Amino acid sequence: MLTNKDIIIPGIKQDQDCGISCSELFHYDTKWQNITLKNICQHFQPIVLGIFGLCFTINMIPLSQMFNEEYYQRYMEFFSTKITYVNTEKSYWNLEDGYSSYMNQPVLVNVIPARTSGVSYNHRLRLMLQSSDDDFLSCADLGIEGGSFLITFSNPAEYCSVSPRVYITPDTYTKIQITPFVRKINSDLKWRSLEIRQCYLEDERKLSIFQQYTELNCNHECEINKTISMCGCLMIEAAYSTKLPENRLVCNCLPTCSMIEYEVTDTSHFDDWNYMKSINLVQNNSRGATIELVFKKPYFTAYTSASILNLKSLINQLD
């Protein structure tokens, strides 16, 4: 699937050595395109997402390609006890050209990010999540009084995102359908100046922490800069960053000229985990949920901008 999914653990664990591990969260019976994945945690990378704490992300490009070298080493040191990701293959996917670098391959298998060719039962990703009762976060202001798992979605080049998101109630089977929308600009507009086009082409804007420029990555880095500048402290999700990135405090985080956005819909029904406890498939003190992720349609919608009209040009036309 061409989407990066962050699976948020129920509790807030600010000490990464005390946080839940991937093997504790994910049940062994995980299926991708109807094939059981052995050692599922080899496919997950740990990150920290704001107040939600430790989470695990799947189908993100390798963080060795997302972070610049110095910050990747700091990330590795910070998550030293939580890293189970073993994929060393380089990803040649990017926002602007997609999978075009793989055109010489007759069949796209074992690529990063992974992709599927259909929308049926046999083209899904199925995850079984579990956690003990004591680990669940309950927060009425966030609408999760009874405790929930949280899943967020972003494109594979983005470090993290809190929207779109889905809260998953324990003891349920939830089907999540994903609709991607791809936006690009006409090739003729790429030659226009940045001031006119108001979006960044690939490799046009460099960041200090991230190799991959996206508006979200830029804003994330800018928040780190401003936080250090204003209070001399770090957000918990930036704990791997121990110095001020060399970046302007005036962020100017424009969108990328090519982008992917996602619309997600979900349906749930009750799923009795007591039966699985009775046959020792899961622990007696655990609560869990089964999640099925699949594309909603056998195609995606692509938009191409053929003209550029910003506020300044609109005012000029009205004069």
UniProtKB/TrEMBL annotation:
Listed Gene3D superfamilies: Acid-sensing ion channel domain
Major localization class:
membrane
Keyword Nucleotide-binding in record: no
Protein keywords: Ion channel, Ion transport, Membrane, Sodium, Sodium channel, Sodium transport, Transmembrane, Transmembrane helix, Transport
List the GO cellular component terms.
Answer: plasma membrane
Q: How does it sit in the membrane?
A: Multi-pass membrane protein
Extract the GO molecular function terms from the UniProt entry.
Answer: ligand-gated sodium channel activity
Record's superkingdom? Eukaryota
Instruction: Give its localization.
Output: Membrane
Q: Which InterPro entries did the record assign?
A: ENaC (IPR001873)
Family under the similarity heading: Belongs to the amiloride-sensitive sodium channel (TC 1.A.6) family.
- Which protein is depicted? Uncharacterized protein
Q: Which organism is it from?
A: Aphis glycines
* Lineage per the UniProt record: Eukaryota, Metazoa, Ecdysozoa, Arthropoda, Hexapoda
